[in-house]
Amino acid sequence: MTPHDRAFANSAGTTISRSIFSDSEVYQRELARVFSRTWLFLAHEGQFRKPGDFFTTYMGADPIIVTRQRDGSYRGLLNSCRHRGMRVCRFDEGNAKVFTCPYHGWGYNTEGSLVNVPDQEATYGDSLDTSAWGLKTVPRIETYRGLIFGTWDDEVPPLVEYLGDFTYFLDVLLDPDGNGTEVVPNVHKWRMRGNWKLAAEQFAGDMYHAQSTHLSALIVEAQASHGIMPPATGFQVGFPSGHGLGGFDGYDYWRASGVSDETVDWMAGLADRTEAHLGSARARDMVLIHGTIFPNISLLWPRWNLRVWHPKGPDAMEVYSWCIVPKKAPDAVKRDLILDYQRHFSASGTWEQDDGEQWNYSTNSSDGFMTRDLPLHYAMGHGRAPNTRHPDFPGLVDEVTSEVNQRLFYERWEQMMASPHPKENGAALAAAIPPAETAGVK
Ligand code: FES
Ligand code: FE
User: Fold this and answer.
1) Alpha-carbon Rg of the chain, whole angstroms?
2) Residues 6 or more apart from 373 whose CB is under 8 A from it?
3) Is the minimum distance from the CB of 124 to ligand 1 under 6 angstroms?
């Protein structure tokens, strides 16, 4: 695709068709062309202690069971029985030797093999080749600093290459001082109206909304901020891969945040250790706030939060949200950080609900007969000279209020949407289904 051959945007990417937030055909295409071809976050290694531990999630719209194997590796199983398609596991997490389908009782082990068929001899005789009817498995699973990712695609580069220079910033969340982080038990989950891309793009690059969307929360929290405000200057950092993040130039974030004095002091010590471990460019000279790993994984550094926007049709999403805290923090500090995360984000968080309202109404006002023809404005910061205050940063660095990251996100999304998946085409699909005699049916 050339820069002048964009289906959903103008050539500069400064206006975008709002059909991408409401059109059901676009949604079906992005399941095939985006979600089946990228690394998707599945779970945190800290959720698994022993063989057979499992966690259920999604890859795009496909339900997945993530299981820990005897050798300590992880496997992703498509959570859909090969008999009539029922989910073989309906729990959020747990430990199992076998996943027994509740419909007719077919049982699959944690590797996905079909190991039990009730009354097999009486019902099927020797006509059922169980070796051919296991659960479909995710072909590639890789980890990065405790994060488990999966992809269906053979050609997507290795995970660390896919993350690229985003790891320069990701490491500040996952390993700020060389002692690592741990995941807080239990994943917050909720469903809301709104297209998943509005959430992903906001976390990638939108600091601009905070002064309006979160104004009431900012007014309430100002009482605990000791009069400290974020500086007027900051940054957005974007990558052609579609990943993006933003933050402020350095300031005393934790003293302004309303957490306990013990937590303020411990975080000041953490900044010293981060400076020693990662350098001042990632400790003193900036405060990372928000980011997105393309396509649907987002982070909030100061809330110790990582979340996935699972698509549920063009106008809805399900959020899975993890809290990850520094491993060596005292219990009281961990508790403070967890409460701080919950108060702001998670299903009951004030800031979370502020954002959710915007995504809901932005989405459901995009499929009217008149509204669908009106493009949206994505030109903020376009053509501006780069931000040079952070020379160590990789990526394209712009000012804190900019839409450069959103433009890069949609440029990447459009590149992928322009390339059909072989299974989208009826003829290719028919060719991909193996003949019955080789598919385990006699
Ligand atoms: Fe699973 Fe029939 S649908 S055993
Ligand atoms: Fe927000």
Assistant:
1) 23
2) none
3) no
Residue found by looking up tokens 């709104």 in the block: 194
- Residue 81 Cβ inside 6 Å of ligand 1? The answer reads yes
Say if ligand 1 is within 6 A of residue 103 CB: yes
Which residue puts its alpha carbon closest to atom 2 of ligand 1? 104
pLDDT digits (tens, 9 = 90+) for 372-387: 889 999 999 999 999 9
206 flagged as catalytic: yes
- Directed axis angle between helix 196-205 and helix 350-364, to 10°? 130
Concerning whether 265 is annotated as a catalytic residue, the answer is no
Per-residue pLDDT for 429 more than 50?
Answer: no
Confidence of residue 199 (pLDDT cuts 50, 70, 90): very high
The model's confidence at residue 423, banded by pLDDT at 50, 70 and 90, is confident
Q: How far is the CA of 189 from the centre of ligand 1 (A)?
A: 27
User: What is the spatial distance between Cα 276 and Cα 178, in angstroms, rounded to a whole number?
Assistant: 10
Ligand number, closest to the Cα atom of 212 = 2
**Whole-prediction pTM:** 0.95
Catalytic residue among 336, 340, 354, 355: 355
Cis previous bond, 295, omega within 30: yes
pLDDT score of 4: 45
The average pLDDT across 289-315 equals 98
Shortest-distance ligand to the CA of residue 349: 2
Could you read off the pLDDT of 254-266 as tens digits, one per residue? Answer: 999 989 999 999 9
DSSP letters for 63-103: EEEEEE-TTS-EEEEE-S-TTT---S--SSEEE-SEEE-TT
For residue 99 and ligand 1, the question of a CB distance below 6 A is answered with no
